[in-house]
Request: fold
Amino acid sequence: MSSRTVIRGGLVITASDEIHADVLIEDGRVAALAASGTPAAEAWSAERTLDATGKYVIPGGVDVHTHMELPFGGTFASDTFETGTRAAAWGGTTTIVDFAVQSVGHSLREGLDTWHAKAEGNCAIDYGFHMIVSDVNQETLKEMDLLVEEGVTSFKQFMAYPGVFYSDDGQILRAMQRSAENGGLIMMHAENGIAIDVLVEQALARGETDPRYHGEVRKALLEAEATHRAIKLAQVAGAPLYVVHVSAMEAVAELARARDEGLNVFGETCPQYLFLSTDNLAEPDFEGSKYVCSTPLRPKEHQAKLWQGLRTNDLQVVSTDHCPFCFTGQKELGRGDFSKIPNGLPGVENRMDLLHQAVVDGHISRRRWIEIACATPARMFGMYPKKGTIAPGADADVVIYDPHAEQTVSAATHHMNVDYSAYEGKRLTGRVETVLSRGEPVITEREYTGHAGHGVYTPRSTCQYLN
Reply:
């Protein structure tokens, strides 16, 4: 049985166009668009008609940086694939790419199989995987080729977290050389972890144990240095590079310089760096621990440079790095020692709305909103035009968005499995109303109508930006 849905009367916004159009959906895909009120559009009949008058019709968000159920610092991220993807849907995101983890001494395949087992049958929306490479050796390098062939086309390495995820420059260079050959994209956590560990040790020895010192030891210069080093290693290897969660203006400057030289270097930032700052880390009574993440929050003056980077395309993507830990019982592990606070913030539900607020505030245009949150992440990680746009043949991942609705962000009303909101009390204009994933309603007029297991695994092609 074929199923048809028509969305009528909305303003369809993609990265390239804004058009008052009706959208015809057939068997989970976008079948056609036609200007509202024209004979072509009026002729469509369907089992389900959705009225989007006065609303935006946008592609579902693509969040290419999440950590569901991630083991970290003796605990686990508090969102499961079930709770996390449901919360993502509430926020207008219809595809996530999560990180499977290779543990030292184990194969990439073991790590990937573990993450498939966590996610399969539990997701409300579609999902893919990147692979965290923690142990570069000859076997790992061979496995990278196999993973690219089967649709895991991006590999994350860490210049931070010695003894956990850390790779040295030689290991990074080998992985980059391999990705230059197999078409994979290296994603880099760019912070000088060796130097940071020295500063952590010295701070604790001085009795500087509060959460705010997390930001002070993870210096912006050490993010910039690592970003520069990663760029040069990628240049030596002839490999593309994607730098994750860029937080500091000095790191943006390194990316801009590399891009001006014509290098295939890309940058991602996250809402927490655009909207929060070290003021949050300094909140009293250990409240600052809620905002401990790495790279850390920076002083407010960095925000303007991040917005500028998004406007000039020196930063191309906004993802969440969603990695929630409850304040009670998890963040509290670091009372008396900031280095033991689990690193991560909840945000998968807030990203699309926060970026719409940026449109309202004049930081970015409506089309740039869709570009950085939907189209570019889909292209960057080999999912476009199946994901990230509204066009004939694309998956019918479609959001009806009310640009006038007002909301106040709060842990009392969010759907992430975490006991606080990083944006508690923030007033936003704009809200998701209805969400379709492959044509099926997951959120219907602010009610959850989806189910675990609807979301399917999405293999990916290689980065679509490489020249």
Q: What stands out?
A: The chain has a mean pLDDT of 97. Residues 220-237 form the longest helix (18 residues).
